[in-house]
Design brief:
The protein is α+β, with helices and mostly antiparallel strands and 135 residues long. The protein has a single domain (12-129), classed as 2,3-Dihydroxybiphenyl 1,2-Dioxygenase, domain 1. Helix content is 16%, strand content 43%. It is built from two helices and eight strands; from the N terminus they run βαββββαβββ. It has helices at residues 25-35, 87-96; strands at residues 12-21, 40-46, 49-56, 59-64, 79-84, 101-107, 111-117, 123-129. It is globular, with a radius of gyration of 16 Å.
């Protein structure tokens, strides 16, 4: 990675969501919903893969089995998604700094999303919610 010589123009606003990969979605939902009492706010299922969101205060906890090969459950910690002010500018700053991209920008109906590597190889998601006026 290139050395950062000046303050970047990235503006982190909040944690967009915290994601946990799971291998057995019914077992995971039993734990989070029945044991912990969380109620799903968003559920996306397609071809045996699921993305379940739970609103927890001002942030969201997400469970998924969508990327089992790329994103495996780990005792080493969850993945964080950072909400940014300007998605494309942030990606330009990261590319200019030589940051490795695990997943290039995805344009989804509800958000923009990319995944980069920190210096140790940990995944950090760069995220920008779309407001209802933008969708």
């Amino acid at each position: 990675m290139n050395a950062i010589t000046s303050t970047p123009s990235i503006s982190i606003r909040e944690i967009a969501f915290i994601g946990y990969p799971v291998t057995d979605m019914p077992r995971a939902r039993t734990f989070y919903e029945k044991l912990l009492g969380l109620q799903p706010s968003t559920t996306f299922e397609h071809e045996g893969k699921s993305w379940i969101e739970y609103d927890v205060g001002a942030t969201t906890l997400a469970l998924t089995n969508t990327s089992s090969e790329q994103w495996k459950p780990s005792a080493d910690g969850p993945s964080v998604a950072l909400e940014v002010a300007d998605f494309h500018e942030t990606l330009e700053v990261l590319r200019a700094a030589g940051v490795r991209f695990y997943a290039e920008a995805l344009e989804l109906p509800s958000c923009q999303f990319a995944v980069v590597s920190d210096p140790d190889g940990n995944s950090v998601a760069i995220h920008k919610r779309r407001h209802s006026a933008e969708a």
